[in-house]
Design brief:
CATH architecture: Alpha-Beta Barrel
Strand content: 5-15%
Shape: globular
CATH class: Alpha Beta
CATH topology: TIM Barrel
GO molecular function, one term: NADP binding
Structural class: alpha/beta
InterPro entries: Aldolase_TIM (IPR013785), OxRdtase_FMN_N (IPR001155), YqjM-like (IPR044152)
Protein name: Oxidoreductase
Number of helices: 11
Cofactor: FMN
Helix content: 25-40%
Number of domains: 1
Keywords: Flavoprotein, FMN, NADP, Oxidoreductase
CATH superfamily: Aldolase class I
Length: 365
Amino acid sequence: MPASLLAPFRLRDVEFRNRLGLPPMSQYSAVPGEHAATSWHLHHYATRALGVGTVIVEATAISREALVTPHDLGIWTDDQQDSLAAVAEVISDGGAVPALQLSHGGRKGSRTRPWDGDRWLRPDEGGWEVIGPSPIPFASGYPVPRPAGRRDIDRVLYDFQRAARRAAAAGFRMLELHAGHGRLLHSFLSPVANQRSDHYGASFDNRARLLLETVSAVRGAWPHRFPLAVRLSCDDYEPGGWTLPDTLRLAPLLARAGVDLIDCTSGGIRRPQTRRPAPGYQVQYAAAVRKTGVATAAVGLINDMRHAGTVIDAGHADLVLMGRRLLVDPALPLRAVGAEDAGLVPRQYQRALQTVPASDFLPEL
């Protein structure tokens, strides 16, 4: 484990024991109609909390209308809140800061989960109406969203604020708003999806209005001592879309509104997406945004500890979020530490750090 990754990091009153974390990665494992965390979520998040500084629980819908699939987590009922409180507890027990990502799927909603075909779920199959900034579908075969009116926007703001209160009551200590990958808040930012001519469209300030209003609403409900993050698609990779210069213009506005960290991702405003990912391909965005004075998290095919350490050493980001590798190799942080850093390994597992000669296992001849 590079020494830079082991360094603690502080946002507001919350200290992260190191600079490695698990990003929000949907498990699509909630029971349809209930949308509460299950035993799968408890096992998944408890395991991945060992050794990292924070675990950001997957995109969690702020309302039934905000779901992307019928198997998403939600946080609009007491039962959902209670189930997520158990998730926050096992993450804390593992030594990581429990964080929760709040989401409204917008025009990406009403679809099946990936292994069920990742297709539009029609109303006669239990699907639901989706909203967006303009009547532009996310992709071929997706529903045409109903343009959000004033009442819709007011409801979205209310639902985000209510969800923030529930997240605090459930024991989470960092909150992230999903404003990337084509979901509702991202779609309002991007001219690819937003062709409105009212106060929420056309100009940069108008397109940024919903996100900034959401941050303000959430910050008013979220405890001041806890940090607030935004996951932002920093570049659409689309002609006429949202660009990195737009992100650099937005970042100080988010900071002034109460955002402490920008989780820098990219793309996803529509399908098909033309850019192919490569190891570390999104680190450039975290590095550029960090120069505006806002703390950042770097993501994007960072698959080993040495690579993660170079990101921190170079000053490109404050946190590295490692997703796909930790899905299949959750013990990687524990295996990467040396004996001098054994404190990162739970006491129950520290015997694994002891070196035993192979000869000790060989019988005498």
